[in-house]
Amino acid sequence: MIPAGPLWAPLLGFPLEWAAIALLTAGAIYWERAALSGIGIEGCVLSAMLGLCLGYEWSGSYLVAALAGVGASLAFALAASVLLLGFRSDPVVGSFCLSLIPAAALVLFSRAGPLRLLHETPPPGLIHGTIFDGTYSEDLVLNPWLVAAPFVLALAALIMLKTPFGLRLRGYSESPALARHGPWQVVRTRLWGALLGALWAAPAAGILLRSDTEFPTLGLGYIALACAVAGRWAFVPGILLAIGPALLRTARPYVADDLAGTIALEAGPFLIAVLYLVFLSRRALRAATTSQSRLDPDVL
Question: Number of folded domains in the chain?
Fold first, then answer.
């Protein structure tokens, strides 16, 4: 089916999709470096969505909702970090199970009734009073989350690659011997790494709530983790790999009335993530040089 309006109109959603997955990829890199599984970034973005939706539902102020979204994402990261690092739980299983909590809450609130943030007009969160109001390009030009995304990604890369904190975070994840010295400093550094990863996920939540107004998006954190792994934990390759899933998600309006096509394009991004892991992740998930380090939970 050809969507209503200009044929090219749905393609304007591509920057939204790409920016959201790229931000989640950056967050997943931080969570992996913090000795937590990048799977937990799914819980961060869902918590941020939940905070945004409920904050706006109860206050009617988008500023309050945005603060609630950021706070919810940070709260999830703090709780998950304390539980996983404090009890030395399996990070993959623990992050996945904890991420189910905001997912279930978001689904329940969405089914309870239409959320104002998703259906109110004019759209909350956009800059109003310009010539772009009500046009196809309003989400590109008037969305503060999208405008901030490149700067947030640059800041995330700068902190990880060019600061002493980033050096320590990477060092603890790559060297088990280094991670055993000064345990409280290691835990503190990893905790801050998880909180920063959650902070990068908050803008992604704001973007996704504008790209999917029918129902909040689930599962993009897992796709972002696949991009991070396939990109060998590097920011630029991971961001570029996010293009593939973003393109498929952008094409969904073209098959809106075709059930088979809709299912294919909904599942397509996850299939691409699997292909990334199959063909590109072998060297990213590097084998350790000794039997000790292969079994050490502190090694990335």
Answer: 1
